[in-house]
């Protein structure tokens, strides 16, 4: 987790961003602490408490550091937009709807997902430690960002966790297997296995679409195509042009990962992550809300209630080494475990996160919208 920083608005003594050209677009390398300062300033201008602003900044910049710009600071303008339209409420806390010890469901009260996700996950950890297992639902939260963040929170506490998530409150974005138009969101799924110390032994964290929606936004902002066979245009034809995802009417659709199996996983994320919890399910009502609602079912399991954390960690380490040693297929350089790309990205990006000029200008616009244009000085 990114620590809270206390740097001045301009980023104190942190190195100034460097700028380079990437396919005719300007890309700035911005120190993560500068981004952290910026996000906290904008959240404070929306009225967020210091704790809330810090949790939002921790998760957004944590996503950038993990290599997931789709869920990083580039989401802040959407949060400001949600706040301006009263879809996002600041300074909320989860409230219990069901509380039976090991089973609980919390309402997120349209609050910042970074706070709702954190509080619901803390409750899951506490209950799993008490009962060996906890099943905790979170419904009606604003966007909860990168789901791996919640898996990491469980893993740091020594727990294994499974997260089924739906996304609703706007038009559907992902076409089901064999479908030509969208019927569900990018419904992420995550499993975390605790490791030694803070780093999970394995962290599978994925959208159930071939690419996350934010990756189409990042590609559009960078002026690059999306990978082959990941998108349909408004007529249901395969395309690499991300612009169709931002066109209305006749919006395109992301293609579900893993053919019929990934499409099925997205559907059970909707059913377990939302329908089971009394959360908003994608459909006509959901489309009219014009917001970003996430619902999440978390199952947290304490290995200490079974064979013990040390035993799980040593089995996991030995097994992952065994898998890693697979002979390589032609064209591949190594076998990676889930979570390894993110771990490497955190090392690579520790001193600078690439932010394209479109995203920078959207961030400046967001700061101006909430009346603190000077907050953008942290990015200069
Ligand atoms: N809040 C929401 O509504 C929402 C919706 C969708 C996605 N998301 C988030 O978007 C992020 C991006 O999702 P994504 O599906 O684009 O991620 P991705 O495709 O980059 O990675 C998915 C998983 O595959 C692993 N992986 C990646 N490359 C690998 C390789 N070469 N070998 C082995 N494993 C590899 C990663 O460690 C990760 O666990 C996630 O953090 C997800 O939680 C959030």
Written account of the structure:
The protein is of the alpha+beta class. The chain has helices spanning 32-46, 50-65, 76-84, 113-131, 148-156, 213-222, 259-273, 284-288, 309-324, 340-348, 357-369, and strands at 18-22, 25-30, 95-99, 103-107, 133-142, 160-168, 174-175, 189-193, 202-206, 231-232, 238-239, 253-255, 293-301, 353-356. The protein has three domains: 18-86 and 350-379, Hypothetical Oxidoreductase Yiak, Chain: A, domain 1 (Orthogonal Bundle), CATH 1.10.1530; 95-209 and 256-305, Malate/L-lactate/L-sulpholactate dehydrogenase, NADPH binding domain (Ribosomal Protein S8, Chain: A, domain 1), CATH 3.30.1370; 219-253, no CATH class. The strands form three sheets. A seven-stranded mixed β-sheet has the order 3-4-5-13-6-8-9. A four-stranded mixed β-sheet has the order 7-12-10-11, with no helix packed on it. The radius of gyration is 20 Å and the shape is globular. Residues 1-11 have low confidence and may be disordered. Nicotinamide-adenine-dinucleotide binds next to strand 9 and helix 10.
List the topology elements:
Blueprint: E1 18-22, E2 25-30, H1 32-46, H2 50-65, H3 76-84, E3 95-99, E4 103-107, H4 113-131, E5 133-142, H5 148-156, E6 160-168, E7 174-175, E8 189-193, E9 202-206, H6 213-222, E10 231-232, E11 238-239, E12 253-255, H7 259-273, H8 284-288, E13 293-301, H9 309-324, H10 340-348, E14 353-356, H11 357-369
Parallel strand pairs: 4-5, 7-12
Antiparallel strand pairs: 1-2, 2-14, 3-4, 5-13, 6-8, 6-13, 8-9, 10-11, 10-12
